Amino acid sequence: MAVDVAYDGAAAAEHLAVHDYDVLVLDRDLPAVHGDEICRDLASSGARTRILMLTAAAAVPDRVAGLGLGADDYLPKPFDFSELVARVQALGRRSRPPVPPVLRRAGIEMDTHRRQASRDGRHLALSAKEYAVLEVLLRADGAPVSAESLLEQAWDENPDPFTTVIRVTIRRLRAKLGDPPCIHTLTPSTVTGDLALLNRLVANLIENTVKYNHAFDITTHDGCLTVRNTGPRVPPDQVSGLFEPFRRLPNRTRAATAVDNGAGLGL
Fold first, then answer.
1. Which of 197, 196, 175 is nearest to 187 (CA)?
2. 182 within domain boundaries
3. Residues 109 and 90 sit within 8 Å (Cβ to Cβ)
4. Surface-to-core class of residue 61, CB atoms within 10 Å of its CB (0-12 exposed, 13-18 middle, 19+ buried)
5. Torsional class of 137: left (φ above 0), alpha (ψ -120 to 50), beta (otherwise)
6. Are residues 56 and 130 in the same domain?
7. Domains in the chain: how many in total?
8. Backbone CA torsion sign across 105, 107, 108, 112
9. pLDDT per residue over 201-230, tens digit each?
10. 154 and 112 inside one domain
């Protein structure tokens, strides 16, 4: 389970506008934007995110008021951490479409309750991230899963989108799964002639554009679909760098001394 943290209501609202979370653990007394307002807005939006209020307001009227705002669960302070984890996991199961407790595909069996996986009866010793990636792929049930989706579901919000961590994790996971290969990287030649698969890939492109860009437009002409980012996402003096090999924009979340060389578009 990947976790993002916001320290005030304004940051929480920004996170919720961008990410489709399974569970929100919400303190009522947040600065900037009150937790009650966050809860009310999220519940009224129809989002699938389940809300757990975690607060010092423990009186019965406070609990009734919190649940009335749209919270799915209410846990007063002080609390036992194991109970918090159990409640979050229970809400997470309710926020997703029901799936069997054991996921099966291509000889792979994953027991999501015991967090164990095997292939053809052979136990798989997986790291936490390898397990998370495999679970995302199994839940997709054969549908394409983008790198962006893997980052969102198996990592927190901080990994650089140009990172090689997904490629490295997939390579290690393939080695542990063994033959015959069951994880395939899609290329344009892979989807040629498969209209349904191509439609899913295009839909994924549009979904990511809508989710990660605040300003964009989508147009069609003579059967050609164009998705264009119209927001000031790249500083003008750095646009040319996108077309150079092994180039990417500095990541503002890292220290100024961090090394920023890496794989770019290289067009």
1. 197
2. no
3. no
4. exposed
5. alpha
6. no
7. 4
8. positive
9. 667 666 666 665 555 565 655 556 565 655
10. yes
